[in-house]
Amino acid sequence: xxxxxxxxxxxxxxxxxxxxxxxxxxxxxxxxxxxxxxxxxxxxxxxxxxxxxxxxxxxxxxxxxxxxxxxxxxxxxxxxxxxxxxxxxxxxxxxxxxxxxxxxxxxxxxxxxxxxxxxxxxxxxxxxxxxxxxxxxxxxxxxxxxxxxxxxxxxxxxxxxxxxxxxxxxxxxxxxxxxxxxxxxxxxxxxxxxxxxxxxxxxxxxxxxxxxxxxxxxxxxxxxxxxxxxxxxxxxxxxxxxxxxxxxxxxxxxxxxxxxxxxxxxxxxxxxxxxxxxxxxxxxxxxxxxxxxxxxxxxxxxxxxxxxxxxxxxxxxxxxxxxxxxxxxxx
Length: 331
Hints:
The protein is mainly alpha-helical. The chain is built from twelve helices and no strands. The chain is 79% helix and 0% strand. The longest helix has 40 residues, at 291-330. The protein is globular. The chain crosses the membrane at residues 24-47, 67-86, 92-114, 121-140, 160-181, 188-209, 229-251, 263-283, 295-314. Belongs to the NIPA family. Keywords: Membrane, Transmembrane, Transmembrane helix.
């Protein structure tokens, strides 16, 4: 079966057409539903993987042999596939904030399975992070209709977007090669930054694959246009796979050392922010940004920053309390 770019489930054109009249297309509604289900699935991944890591440490073996860790890994794969489908059925500015549902669901699971109970500051920080991120996306500039591969190719070669990609790559190399070995085990923001920066590639690649696929698997036959589409498709696919694998590695490194509750909340916030920036640069969404939306986004970003600070303070307070409690027991 060939993939036809005119089919509503693989194109954003139907949403663009209906979006102009104020209604939501069936494809977009289906993408939103899939995103909600994927958010709940993704919310369980960090908890299950963390539980598997804890059990393997107690046994003295590798978490690669733990059933719970593998169940979390499978859940992550299923959730990411769901996100891939959702991003190609509805705009990222609608799909991305639904990840907040996974953060809250993960917090509930962590308190039940891992006994990771956030204190008052931690709970307030989690709520502020989710609310701020949702408001950030609500007031983010809406994507212009990019419905063809040629439009995507043109925007991928934009000097501003190319400069952004180069900057992200430089930061990633510095974090992975120098910062992570020295400070990764003591500062959660190192691993979070690596995974979030990679998010600026994963979401555009997911959407780009959906646009390039019809030209690659269509019935037009071999042509210079289809050859360019194949090169673009393979390039996006390799970038997506590498980004996901590196994220997967550093997510597990973070779960070995930090609370799944705190990691998931901060990761969601930073991931959402980088996705907004990458999408805005690639699709030139800032051209439709109003003054009111700009002010609202600044307020939302401030709310997110306060939430992250509260999460960090709550984590440091918990560590200090445990150390003090341990000294009192020894005395």
